[in-house]
Every structure is written in C-alpha cells, then in structure tokens.
Write a structure and sequence with these properties.
mainly alpha
C-alpha cells in the first residue's frame, strides 16, 4: 500500500522505515497466472499508410531499330527534295537571266540593222549564242523539275513506310498500357488482401 500511495510523499512526510517501491508499467506486469502476455511479432503489424511500389515496365517498341532506320531514310529523302528544289530555283533564275540577255541581243540586232549594217553579223552571232543558252537552260530547268517530282515521290514512299511503323508502335504502346493497368490493379488487390490478413493476424495476437 505504501508503495502505491506514499511514493509521491515528501521525505519528511513518509513513514519511518519507508523505502519507495517503483511499480512496473502496466504492460510489463505479470498476468494473474504469473505469465507475461506475449506481444505480437513486429512483422505482423503492417502500417496502413506504408508506401507500395507499383509494378512497372518501361515500354519498348519491338521494331524500334527498324523505325529509326525508316526515320533516317525519310530524313534523307526530305533533304534530297530540299536540294532538288533549291537546284530548280537556281536554274529558273538562270533561265530568267538568259531570256533577258537574249532579248537584249535581239534589240541590238534590230538596232544594227537600222544604224550600222556592218555590225549585223556580229550582233546576230551574239543573239544565236544567247538563244542557245536559253534553250540549254530550259532543258536544265525541266530536268530539275523532274528530279523534284522524283524526290517528292521518294519522300512520300519513305514517309508511308515510317508511318506504318509508327502506327504499329502506337498499337503496341496501347497494348502495353492496358497490360500495365491490369497488372497494377492486380498488384493493389493483392496488397489490400495481404494487409487485411496481416492486420487480422496481428489483432488476434493481442
């Protein structure tokens, strides 16, 4: 009795011969039968707020190397088209200049006929040369236009091949996402079941 009531008394108020007795905590006191109740194993107590690592697998396209090759071919075709268009533009500019020079040569021929017949032969020679340059430049322009059309057709073909693989990659990605979603749902269902079972086991040991 003294151990429970007089433990908190000042020394001058304690009975003669009294020695304080510290009582063990409630959880450490033996049971009436003399046995300490067992504690539940720590591994059986699972926090409801513990973080769970979701199953995950990074998407990888099965034909990624082929797709990269198709992309490279498409880029080459696109560059070839740009080069062909640039060459065509240069030839068209050259044709415009050649036609302007031919018009000037014709004007000089007409002028020589009126003012200096002795210069007609020379002026006509310049006109003939200018006309030949125009014809050659026109042929070059037509050749460049054909190359542009061929480059465009090549680019369309390469682009179609690339788009076919991109469509296949999109389908595989969708399938991967569906499988990941299904796996995640199964994972969380399993974790919820395990958490419930372990909580019940822990409570049964209290």
């Amino acid at each position: 009795m003294y151990g429970t009531q007089a433990e908190g008394l000042a020394p001058e108020l304690a009975p003669a011969g009294y020695r304080p007795v510290r009582m063990p905590p409630e959880t450490d006191r033996p049971s009436p039968g003399g046995c300490t109740p067992p504690r539940p194993p720590s591994h059986c107590v699972l926090s409801l707020h513990s973080s769970l690592k979701m199953p995950g697998k990074k998407f990888r396209f099965s034909l990624q190397k082929v797709l990269e090759l198709r992309q490279h071919e498409t880029e080459k075709a696109r560059q070839a088209l740009a080069d062909a268009e640039r060459a065509l533009e240069q030839k068209e500019d050259a044709l415009e200049q050649a036609e302007g020079h031919l018009a000037e040569c014709r004007r000089r021929v007409d002028e020589a006929r009126r003012q200096d017949p002795a210069r007609i032969q020379q002026a006509d020679a310049f006109r003939q040369a200018a006309r030949q340059t125009v014809e050659e430049t026109r042929d070059a322009v037509e050749a460049c236009r054909e190359r542009v059309e061929q480059a465009r057709a090549e680019l369309r073909e390469r682009r179609r091949a690339e788009e076919a693989l991109e469509e296949l990659r999109s389908q595989e990605r969708d399938q991967h996402d569906r499988e990941q979603k299904k796996a995640s749902e199964a994972f969380f269902d399993e974790q919820a079941t395990l958490r419930h079972d372990r909580t019940d086991e822990a409570l049964s040991l209290l």
